[in-house]
Each structure stands twice: as structure tokens, then as C-alpha cells.
Amino acid sequence: MQTFYKICLILMIVGGINWGLVGLFQFDFVGWLLGGSASIWSRIVFTLVGIAALCGIPGLFSDDSSEN
User: How many CB atoms lie within 10 A of CB 9?
Assistant: First the structure.
């Protein structure tokens, strides 16, 4: 399960950086890299980032005090 959450974190970081680029420079890096925002590959990445963010929500409410 540790690997799953690390993958989710990486996807959320990619999404956050992409949103930062969109906000600051109006540049969609994922869309640019994968053939436009409407391409199937971009939509797959956007969907995976969204799912990763949803999977990260329970981590906000866990009381796990051990740091790994």
C-alpha cells in the first residue's frame, strides 16, 4: 500500500505543477506534452491525477503519527 500512496503523491505533484503553470503562464504542460488538452492521453493523465487526489483524501484524516 505504501507504493500506491507514493504513486498517488507523484501524480498529485504533477497535477499541482501543471495547475501552477496554467495559473502563472497559461501553459498546460501535460496538454502540450501529450498532444493537446483534449487528446485521449491528456485526458487519461488528468483522470489519473484526479483519482490520485481522491485517494489522498483519507490521508488527511488519519492519525498515523509514524513518519516514513
Answer: 14
User: Which amino acid appears at position 28 of this protein?
Assistant: D
C-alpha span between 23 and 67 (Å, rounded): 32
Find out whether 52 and 8 touch, Cβ atoms under 8 Å: yes
User: What single-letter DSSP state applies at residue 37?
Assistant: T
Contact call for residues 29 and 17 (beta carbons, < 8 A): yes
Taking the chain (68 residues) in runs of 10, the rounded mean pLDDT of each run is 91 96 97 95 96 92 69
Q: Which residue has the cell 483519482?
A: 51
d(CA 17, CA 30): 10
Residue 53 contacts residue 15 (beta carbons within 8 Å): yes
